[in-house]
Amino acid sequence: MDLRLRLILLTLVALVAVAVWSFPAWRGRLQPPSLRGGFPGLQIDLQDDYLALPRDQREELLAEHAEDPAKALAMVRVAISEPELAPRDASLGDAQNEARALASGDFIQLNALRWGAGAATIYEWADGRRTLQLRNFESARGGDMRMYLARDPQPLEPAQIGADFLDLGRLKGNIGDQNYLLPAGHDLTIYQSAVIYCRQFDEVITVATLR
Question: For the purposes of burial, counting CB atoms within 10 Å of the CB of 115, is it exposed (0-12), middle (13-18) or buried (19 or more)?
């Protein structure tokens, strides 16, 4: 047999042997992301970020994918995005010492993807101003997050917010203390909850019942 042909055959045998020996290491790359723990449709360079999410969040996202793949994919990209820190706001002074608390409540967790922590308090200041303050606040990430006051004491779904809510504007950050100036002369006694609402996915992220 020609020497060059022998070398080619030996090389092929060696390649097959290496492939068989390393099969467990590269087998997973032939599987779709959902079978090797990743998220279907998510680009490869973001899969590690998805896998770094807590297990319960990954399970919720996969369950969402079964219902609405496009929405679930957008939710994954939001979930793995960087947290948004609320800008420091010292313009109002110390509400706990200089203002009177009218109502307060704590944010709650709805599920692994919809949750919040910290307190929401409506304050009235000596000069008549009224503000909503979020203190020790943190929440799940969402797209186009809004800060609402709603009549329902615990609106867990968008339909429960109703049409007569008070929109205080874009959420200033999903981490950190923040203040929202309330409209003068507005009857605040009709509102029984502070709501973090995600307009992109039409989801209530978290709610605090005000008492």
Answer: middle
Residue ranges for the chain with pLDDT beneath 50: 20, 23-35
**Dist. CA 155–CA 9, nearest whole Å:** 71
* Gyration radius from the chain CA atoms: 26
As beta bridge partners, residue 103 has 122
Strands laid side by side in the 166-170 sheet: 166-170, 145-150, 193-198, 203-209
Pairwise CA distance, residues 95 & 132, whole Å: 10
